[in-house]
Amino acid sequence: MQKAANIHWHTTAITKEDRQKLNDHKSVVIWFTGLSGSGKSTLANAVERRLYDLGKRSYVLDGDNIRHGLNRDLGFSPDDRKENIRRIGEVSKLFVDGGSIVLTAFISPYKEDRQVVRELLQPDEFLEVFVKCSINECENRDPKGLYKKARNGEIKEFTGISAPYEEPSNPDLVVETDKLTIEECVEKVIEKLKKYFII
Q1: Which one from 92, 108, 134, 169 is the annotated catalytic residue?
Q2: What are the pLDDT tens digits along the chain (199 aa)?
Q3: Do residues 142 and 196 make contact, with C-beta atoms less than 8 angstroms apart?
Q4: 108 is catalytic
Q5: Is 122 left (phi over 0), alpha (psi -120 to 50) or beta?
Q6: pTM above 0.70, yes or no
Q7: Most-buried pick from 77, 108, 144, 194 (CB within 10 A)?
Q8: How far apart are CA 45 and CA 142, in angstroms?
């Protein structure tokens, strides 16, 4: 990748800490990772609704939505998946600098790529949430009909079928969406944010 020359980072007049103080909460990336159909987007949006009700400033970055704009030039090859997550990591870092709680809902199948994002941030600014759900249940849900297409060979390099998913080795939180209600999953995330003094 070609790097731009003669560029310099400009320090802003208002700091991240200033924004956090104004918002009355810390900023953090809540990184939801899991198979397609595991409930990442559903959970991220439900957590954001709870945060909104609590008066906290947040934003959901959803995999499909990002691919409509910022990452519309990327496919699903391993290299494109890596670049997809790299860009999301950089955008997430900007949200954290802006004092927000950013909730990302991306399959992000590779441990290495998730670690790259973690290392962009301060140790207390990245919360990895493994949205655990059996592949059988994900296929039963199949809200977009993607598993069926993957099984029929219509989609190449589909995570969990023809492409790997590397489960987190040591996530900050595991929520089992095939065993818990959405409300119970949300509560687990909110409890973790309180435990870490983010909210």
Answers
A1: 108
A2: 556 777 777 888 999 999 999 999 999 999 999 999 999 999 999 999 999 999 999 999 987 788 888 888 998 888 998 999 999 999 999 999 999 999 999 999 999 999 999 999 999 999 999 999 999 999 999 888 899 999 988 998 899 898 899 999 999 999 999 999 999 999 999 999 999 999 9
A3: no
A4: yes
A5: beta
A6: yes
A7: 108
A8: 18
